[in-house]
Design a protein that fits this description.
Layout lengths: L1 H14 L10 H6 L2 E6 L5 E6 L10 H21 L6 E5 L7
Length: 99
């Protein structure tokens, strides 16, 4: 467990997920494929992921990864601000087309 923690700290310091700038994930942000909107009755922030707005190749894999980590960090901040320790995720698979 300690080794896993050390690996996480090393990753955290090198990747700096709390310092991801919106300009580095602008393609993902513009797509509207994932966003926080309000909270539930318990005060948990709610993340909506709309798969129909994901367009493969519109952003690099690195940007997609940063975007995912950015969303987690944003959720943590929102939850802490509201004094809660959880977030909701609504993963909307409606209206997707598989070719």
């Amino acid at each position: 467990a300690y080794q896993m923690w050390e690996n996480w700290v090393s990753w955290w310091l090198s990747f700096a997920p709390d310092k991801i700038e919106e300009s580095s994930i602008s393609n993902c942000l513009k797509s509207g494929k994932a966003f926080y909107f309000k909270s539930d009755k318990n005060g948990y922030p709610t993340l909506y992921i709309l798969t129909r707005r994901h367009h493969p190749g519109a952003a690099s894999l690195e940007e997609e990864q940063r975007f995912g980590i950015y969303l987690v960090e944003q959720g943590i901040r929102l939850a802490e601000k509201d004094g809660v320790d959880k977030i909701n995720i609504v993963y909307d698979l409606s209206l997707i087309h598989i070719s």
